Amino acid sequence: RKRRKAEEDDAAVDEMIVDLRKRMRDAAYHDIDDNKDRLPAIHKVAMLSDVVEELGKAHLYEAFLDNNIVDSLRLWLEPLDDGSLPSLDIQNALLDILKKLPIRRDHLRESGIGKIILFMSKCPRIPERNRRTCEQFVQQWSRMVLR
Q1: What is the rounded distance in angstroms from the CA atom of residue 54 to the CA atom of residue 125?
Q2: Predicted TM-score (pTM) of this structure
Q3: What Rg value do the Cα atoms of the chain yield, rounded?
C-alpha cells in the first residue's frame, strides 16, 4: 500500500514540476515578446514568489534537477534581446536557489546555465555581490566539468 502511495506522490510531484517549468518558460517568453514590443517585462517578476516557494522545497531538489529545472532558471537569468538584465529581485532569488541545488555535471551540460553565469560574473552592470556569487559558481562548476 505504501509503495502505491509513494508512486502516486512521485507522479504528482513530477506533474507539479512540469507545470512549474511550463509556467516559467511561458513567463520568460511573454517577457521577451513584451520587451520586443517596448512594453514592460513583468511576467517573471509577477511569478517570482511562486517560483521561490516551490524551489524552496529541499526534499524535491533531486526531482527538480531530474526534470531539468536548471534550463528554466537559465532562461530567467538570460538578458533580454535589448540587453536589459533580469531584475535584481530575480537575480538575487535565483542565485540563492542555485546555491542550494545539488547541481551535477550533466545538469550543467543539459541546461547551458554556465554560459549565463560566466557572463554575469564579468558583466559590470551586475551588482558586485551577485558577480562574486557567479564567480564562485564558475570556479566550482569548472572544477566539476574539468574532472
Answers
A1: 29
A2: 0.88
A3: 16
